[in-house]
Structures are given as structure tokens and as C-alpha cells.
Amino acid sequence: MGYVGETLMNLLHQTAFFNLTWGNYAMIIVAFVFLFLAIKKGFEPLLLVPIAFGMLLVNIYPDIIASPEQTSNGVGGLLYYFYALDEWSILPSLIFLGVGAMTDFGPLIANPISFLMGAAAQFGIFSAYFLAIGLGFNDKAAAAVSIIGGADGPTSIFLAGKLGQSGLMGPIAVAAYSYMALVPVIQPPIMKLLTTKKERAIKMQNLRPVSKLERILFPIVVTVVVCLLLPTTAPLVGMLMLGNLFRESGVVRQLTETASNALMYIVVILLGTSVGATTSAEAFLNWSTIKIVILGLVAFMVGTAAGVLFGKLLCLITGGKINPLIGSAGVSAVPMAARVSQKVGAEEDPTNFLLMHAMGPNVAGVIGTAVAAGCFMAIFGI
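^ thats the sequence. predicted structure below, dont judge the formating
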């Protein structure tokens, strides 16, 4: 009986119940909340479901992301190898390839002024950078944190890795993806606060047709110009434009379909679960993480406000031809931010169709956030 009892006790102590801390339970609850938001509320489920499940797994079984040095047999946990692909910038770059293959750059080409609104929305990133330094982050950590303001998870992961901020990558990535998912909650109050009912009801003229030649030349020209000025942006901007060239060339349909579907979804699974697995209680429940989450929210809100305010300025300059709401889409949460512009505009006038107009600043925001990351890398000589 003694042997049986001892065996049962050993088995009992091998269960997770005897190893979890209060922090683990807190993070498990957060994972449940994320799953609820994704499944019940439909907030970016493609992002939140894998992130939440990775969060759940690592707080039940921390060794799932253990490095080979931390294990007795010299073999790392499953999600450790997924996470290595994040640190090597492979998964973020492949995400950009898929986004480029999925996205129509026509609205941006048809209305180049959208570049300015996309640029204005990056103000949140640089304002958060100085605020982060004021809160005690070093310059590289401040840059890695501030990029959350672009609401661009892949770029946040890419920059954190390039600047050697792997220790902050988990909180930064989770914050960035969380704010991408919460765009429909965070942006509308800011947009309504900064615009009048009359401005929100402005109907914009139909965009001009964009020729096939323009569509083909655009990704090539942007790649040459941006990568000559900021060569470090090549992994992101280059992959984004390559994906779009697949789409617009019309001669590589199989590559377009693979990049925008199968490859994209495989990468989202790997990236989402590995990002979620960085949120162990020990790594996530500390003051640095809280400051990162707050700074990211401030940056995102300031970026949204800057885009709307610049939209108001353009509305004034053009005599009311531009609806300021599309400026909020200058953050790079594609295409959710553009959909929010459409939704808020339709609340004032159901016949108002802003989606394609908002896609211009939205695509410009993707490029703008990558350029902002490249600027930080250039500043630090990376």
C-alpha cells in the first residue's frame, strides 16, 4: 500500500495544480477573456484565438516555450522553435508578404494624398517614444515600445528583435495585436470627439480608375525608393511589395493564392501561438509590462487623433471634399481601421461609402509604420 500511495502522490504532484502560481491563474483568466472577445464578439479572431491559446498553454505548462538550455534533454519546447522564427524576423516578413498579396493598393494610387494621412497617423509612434524615455525606458526599448502606436503586430515584433529587445517582445507583441483587435472599440469615440456631425456625413467623390501599368509599377517604385533611403526596411517593405506584385502582375496566380491564403494562415498560427506563449505570469505580470500596455494605448490613441486632425485640415484645404474620418485609418491595422471609418461614417448617413477611400490611408499606414521602424534602426545604426 505504501508503494501505491507514494506512486499516487507522485502522480498528483505532477499535475499543474501543484505548480501554478496566482499569476498563472490570472493569466489563464486573461486568456479566457481574449477567447471570449474573439469567439463571442468577433474581435479579430484570426489573431486573438491563437494568441489566447498560446497564453493558456504557457501558463499551464511553462516548459512549452523552454529553451534547449533549460531542459534536461537539450530539446526546447514546441513553441520555443516557433518563437525563434519571430526573433529571426521570418514570420513578420512572411505576414507582410501575405498582406501585400491580399491588399488592393488602388485607392492609395488613385489618391496619393492618402500618403500624408498615413504619415500623420505615425505621430503617435514618435510621441510615445519620448514618453517612454520619460518613464525610464532606454532609447532602444522606448523605440520598440512606441511602434505599438502603429497597431502593427509584425512590425512591432520585427523592430523589437532588430533592436535586441527580445525580453520585451512578448508584452509588445501582445499589446500591439490586442489593440489591432480592439480598433472597433478604441477608435470610434476619438473619431466622434474630434469631428462634427457635418464632417462625418461628407460624401467623397468616386476614385479614378487605376490602370494595370500603375498597379504593376507602384510596388516596384516604392520598393526602390524606400529601400534605397532605408535599406533596413527591405524585409518588411520588400515582402509587402512582392506580395502585391504577385497580385497585380496577373501572371503568378498560384503564388498569389498561396501567399494570401495557405501560407498566410500557417504563419498566423505559428506567430499567434508563439506570441501568446511569451505571456507567462513571470514574464508578463510586472511594472514594465503595465507601462508598455499603457504606452501602447496612448500611442495608438494619439495616432488615431493625429490622423483625424490631419483629415480635418485636408477637409478645410479642399473645401470639404475629404471626410476627416478616413484619417483614422492611417494606423496600419488593415483592413479593420478602414472598416471602422466606414462604420462611423455610415452611422451619420447610411448611403455614405467611405471604405475604399479609407483603404488609401490604411495601406499608407502599413508602409508608414515600416518606415518608422526603419528610421529607428537607422538612428541606432542597426
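The mean pLDDT is 90.
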